[in-house]
């Protein structure tokens, strides 16, 4: 069974490679390369896969999942400038793809320790653009 | 990693097949058989997958948007699917057939390094049609 929990955070970022010219960055990242940054209301959907526990009837304690997402993702990232405040985005360009990878890295070990598999991380940058990451192939 | 981008287009269509009698068409397609046609605000979702490259992206957004705009949206947006698209001269303009056409059109003109993985079209909020693109 799949269980999905949603969380939201709002943050600003800039997608630009410091080694490149403004033109090169615009060609690769479009408007996202504005050096002063810009923001999004990110929506995160985390999907876990597992069987309901025979005693509790739950795949995972939703309250605990909420706490994990708050601690690992929402509290550190909400209302922050990712490039300036949230490592590794001082070095790693905070594209939606890289933010999803970082979220996976932060929450996967915590969830795995509880004996449940993290199945998918979906991150919406806008309602019309999202990425799905299911872990290393 | 899979990236999905959503686009919108508005178009009219009429569901009617010459293989059936007018009465049979009316019974099968109901309101969608109205001889004057009717329209929808379609939502198109295109998914691509591939590794995250050294730029931190699965695909260049602008390249993807341009391809979808030029090859798909320009042909469909504010069009009468039956009258304006030769593909629907002899094929019923169902959203199933429209999704198949969009997948074929994109596959023919695909120039992006990421793989075209899925095409999904919502005709209304209540029904959508999804086609996977097989690997390899």
Structure description:
The complex is a heterodimer of chains A (137) and B (136). Chain A is elongated, with a radius of gyration of 16 Å. Chain A has a 5-stranded mixed beta sheet with strand order 3-1-2-4-5. The two termini of chain A are 21 Å apart. In chain A, strand 4 and strand 5 (129-133) form a beta hairpin. Helices cover 33% and strands 30% of the residues of chain A. Chain A has 137 residues and is α+β, with helices and mostly antiparallel strands. Chain B is an alpha+beta fold and 136 residues long. Chain B has 4 helices and 5 strands; from the N terminus they run βαβαβααββ. Chain B has helices spanning 22-29, 61-76, 81-84, 95-109; strands at residues 2-13, 38-49, 79-80, 115-124, 127-132. A 5-stranded mixed beta sheet of chain B has the order 3-1-2-4-5. In chain B, helix 2 (61-76) crosses helix 4. The longest helix of chain B has 16 residues, at 61-76. The relative contact order of chain B is 0.21. At the A-B interface, helix 4 and strand 5 of A face strand 1 of B.
């Amino acid at each position: 069974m799949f269980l999905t929990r949603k969380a939201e955070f709002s943050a600003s970022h800039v997608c630009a490679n410091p080694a490149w010219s403004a033109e090169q960055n615009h060609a690769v990242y479009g408007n996202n390369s504005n050096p002063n940054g810009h923001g999004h209301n990110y929506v995160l959907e985390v999907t876990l896969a597992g069987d309901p526990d025979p005693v509790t009837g739950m795949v995972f304690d939703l309250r605990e999942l909420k706490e994990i997402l708050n601690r690992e993702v929402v509290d550190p990232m909400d209302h922050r400038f990712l490039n300036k405040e949230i490592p590794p985005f001082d070095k790693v360009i905070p594209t939606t793809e890289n933010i999803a990878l970082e979220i996976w890295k932060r929450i996967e070990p915590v969830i795995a320790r509880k004996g449940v598999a993290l199945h998918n991380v979906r991150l919406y940058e806008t309602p019309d653009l999202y990425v799905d990451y299911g872990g290393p192939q | 990693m899979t990236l999905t981008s959503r686009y919108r287009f508005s178009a009219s269509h009429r569901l009617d097949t010459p293989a059936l009698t007018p009465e049979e068409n009316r019974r099968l397609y109901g309101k969608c058989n109205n001889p004057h046609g009717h329209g929808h605000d379609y939502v198109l979702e295109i998914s691509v997958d591939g590794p995250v490259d050294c730029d931190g992206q699965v695909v260049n957004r602008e390249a993807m948007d341009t391809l979808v705009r030029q090859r798909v949206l320009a042909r469909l947006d504010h069009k009468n699917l039956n009258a304006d698209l030769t593909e629907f001269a002899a094929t019923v303009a169902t959203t199933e057939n429209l999704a198949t056409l969009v997948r074929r059109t994109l596959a023919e003109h695909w120039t992006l390094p990421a793989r075209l993985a899925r095409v999904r079209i919502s005709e209304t909020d209540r029904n959508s049609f999804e086609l996977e693109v097989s690997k390899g």
